[in-house]
From TrEMBL:
GO terms for molecular function: endonuclease activity; nucleic acid binding; zinc ion binding. Keywords: Endonuclease, Hydrolase, Nuclease. The keyword Signal does not apply. The keyword Metal-binding does not apply. This is HNH endonuclease. It comes from Leisingera caerulea (Phaeobacter caeruleus).
């Protein structure tokens, strides 16, 4: 069986690599029980560092939409050059909910 692929960066997510489920519509904005995607933990943290819960619910509720955000597009171009297990601290604080 092949490893799942991160829908944000397109890299595989092998066993043992930090990963997390991202609610496409934030739970605080009515997405509890809604669709989720499996992401690298670093990709997930970058999404929440770049966007507020309101922005995620309103404009960025699909992986395709997330890829269009300027900060995330720059991050994706950078992280795609890293191995799947790459870990790094996300710069900046988490955005307000």
């Amino acid at each position: 069986m092949s490893d799942p692929v991160c829908p944000l960066c397109g890299r595989p997510i092998p066993d043992g690599v930090p990963q997390s489920l991202h609610h496409l519509i934030p739970k605080l904005k009515g997405g509890k029980g809604g669709p989720t995607v499996l992401l690298h933990d670093i990709c997930h943290r970058e999404i929440h560092a770049a966007l507020t819960e309101a922005e995620l619910a309103r404009e960025y509720s699909t992986p395709e939409a997330l890829k269009t955000h300027p900060r995330l597009a720059k991050f994706i171009a950078w992280v795609q050059k890293r191995p799947p297990g790459f870990r790094s601290r996300v710069p900046g604080k988490r955005r307000k909910r």
